Amino acid sequence: MNTPAMASLRFDDHQPTLSNLHDEVISGLNQRPRAIQPKFFYDETGSRLFDAICETPEYYPTRTEIAILANNINEISDHIGTDCLLIEPGSGSSQKVRVLLEAIRPHTYMPIDISGDHLLTVAKELLIEHPEINVHASCIDYTAPINLPAYPENLRRVAFFPGSSIGNFKPHQAVSFLSNIAAMVHPDGGLLIGVDLKKDPSILNAAYNDTEGITADFNKNLLTRINRELNADFDRQQFEHRAFYNAAKGRIEMHLISRIDQTVHIDGQRFNFSAGENIHTENSYKYSIDEFKALACQAGFEPVRVWTDPAQLFSVHYFRCAAAAASS
Ligand code: AVI
User: Fold this and answer.
1) Do 316 and 190 meet the contact criterion of CB atoms below 8 Å apart?
2) Separation of 254 CA from ligand 1 center, angstroms?
3) Which residues does a 6 A CB cutoff place in the pocket of ligand 1?
4) DSSP string spanning 74-130?
5) Substitution candidate for ligand 1 out of 39, 208, 217, 285 with most atoms within 8 A of CB
6) How many angstroms is it from 187 CA to the middle of ligand 1?
7) Which one-letter DSSP state was computed for residue 197?
């Protein structure tokens, strides 16, 4: 009698070391304008606060994208096909992939995230919810090129990059990130990606300035994290959250603004802030459908299909590798 094969859970832990945070924070605060990379938002508290942002009435991207995925699931799964290796860089709580897993039934789901504890918890939950799907979780910084372990040759690779996380890269960085993804899913794979659309700035400004102040907490948690992990003495009360749409650059910018003249110590080094001086903590680029198609084409993808919501707030694109498109 044949025993059905059991799905497996594998966890590769390559969590970036403290020295990454140390070196990047110090060099970011020494540059002008000062900047800290948004990837450092996501310690355990930051990941929890981000999940809470997604529940606020103002932050439309999460629920809008989930509705787009759910409303078009048959067409999406026709494009992706079953039994693939489904790779999700920056998987967080893997909330959106849950909409897909039932319909797509990948051979293996590979969540990749920088926040190791959260990743392992979510991977275990998924294996319980979908005992038929292998889960191979990988704790790495997905903004660097990803070297996938060897998988059976015939496993088609599809990347899933929801949430408009692509908007957190500058456009030239987005092209190089997507080029890495194209190399990873080459030659016959695809990319399902969520992209926030350009729209009335008042909707955008509200989404990053929720009235409960959760986005402000998320932004300031960066200072709490640096205090804890780098032996620093930022006073959160003396920094203000500021987020606004920069129409010329097509992006939301988030900053932390010093309320007063102050000196902060990080690991024995002094940093002087004058009142009104800012630390740039995040960009969130917004794209029209055509702008985004052009960007993905530069990275070696070919547009296949795009889905949106009735209010045209958000888009979900499916691309395939350009070489595969040319040969079919
Ligand atoms: C993860 N990323 C796509 C979010 C965004 O909208 O840029 C992060 C975020 N920052 C503030 N609110 C949400």
Assistant:
1) no
2) 10
3) 53, 163-165, 167-168, 208, 215, 282, 284
4) HHHHHHH-SS-EEEEET-TT-TTHHHHHHHH--SEEEEEES-HHHHHHHHHHHHHH-
5) 208
6) 31
7) B
Distance 284 CA to ligand 1 centre (A): 7
Query: 226 CA to middle of ligand 1, Å?
Result: 20
* Tens-binned pLDDT, residue by residue, of the chain (328 aa): 444 466 888 888 777 666 689 999 999 999 999 999 998 998 889 989 999 999 999 999 999 999 999 999 999 999 999 899 999 999 988 889 999 999 999 999 999 987 788 889 999 999 999 999 999 999 888 877 777 766 666 789 999 999 999 999 999 999 999 999 999 999 999 999 999 999 999 999 999 999 999 999 999 999 999 999 999 999 999 999 999 999 999 999 999 999 999 999 999 999 999 999 999 999 999 999 999 999 999 999 999 999 999 999 999 999 999 975 544 4
Distance in angstroms (rounded) separating the CA atoms of residues 17 and 37: 15
CA of 252 relative to ligand 1 center, distance in Å: 9
Q: Which atom of ligand 1 is nearest to the CA of 90?
A: 1
User: Residue 286: which of 257, 322, 247, 325 has the closest Cα?
Assistant: 247
In testing the pocket of ligand 1, which one of 39, 170, 284, 285 has its CB within 8 Å of the most ligand atoms?
284
pTM of the model: 0.94
Contact 220, 239 (CB under 8 A): yes
